[in-house]
Design a protein that fits this description.
- The chain has one domain: Nucleoside Triphosphate Pyrophosphohydrolase (Alpha-Beta Complex), CATH 3.90.79.
- It has 2 helices and 7 strands, in the order E-E-E-E-H-E-E-E-H.
- Strands 1, 2, 3, 4, 5, 6 and 7 form a 7-stranded mixed beta sheet that branches.
- The chain is globular, with a radius of gyration of 14 Å.
- The relative contact order is 0.27.
């Protein structure tokens, strides 16, 4: 099972959350997700997420607490274990390096976006104020 980390990046000024949209040529095209990626061999989850956020968004993130972790099994038989971490602060300006789109959105509007299947339950919990 692949180990994947993702960030719930919040903006203090308006409590919005950063979401990212996959490019058309990627697997699961144009689906929305939280930024992050696969843990490489020998990497700790927080270090992997810090690296991914630098690669994807050009930021030096302060990785906060782990919010939740769960497995997800895709219909095609593949599976991932997802770990989500809170990110409240980071250095640098967010630069879209790999995504089709990057947006700051309110927690309440999250369910309006077409998220990856693995993220849908978490999106509902965030929108309801149960997490973050």
């Amino acid at each position: 099972m692949k180990q994947v980390v993702a960030a719930i990046i919040t903006r203090d000024s308006d409590q919005k959350i950063l979401i990212c949209q996959r490019r058309k040529e990627q697997a699961l095209p144009l689906k929305w997700e939280f930024p992050g990626g696969k843990i490489e061999a020998g990497e700790q989850p927080a270090a992997a997420l810090k690296r991914e956020l630098d690669e994807e968004l050009g930021i030096d993130a302060d990785i906060g607490e782990e919010l939740t972790r769960f497995p997800h099994h895709y219909k095609n038989g593949g599976g991932v274990e997802l770990a989500f971490f809170r990110v409240r602060t980071f250095a640098g300006e967010i630069t879209n390096r790999i995504f089709h789109d990057v947006r700051w959105v309110s927690r309440e509007s999250l369910p309006e976006f077409d998220f990856l299947e693995a993220d849908v339950k978490l999106v509902r919990k965030i929108a309801a104020g149960e997490i973050v």
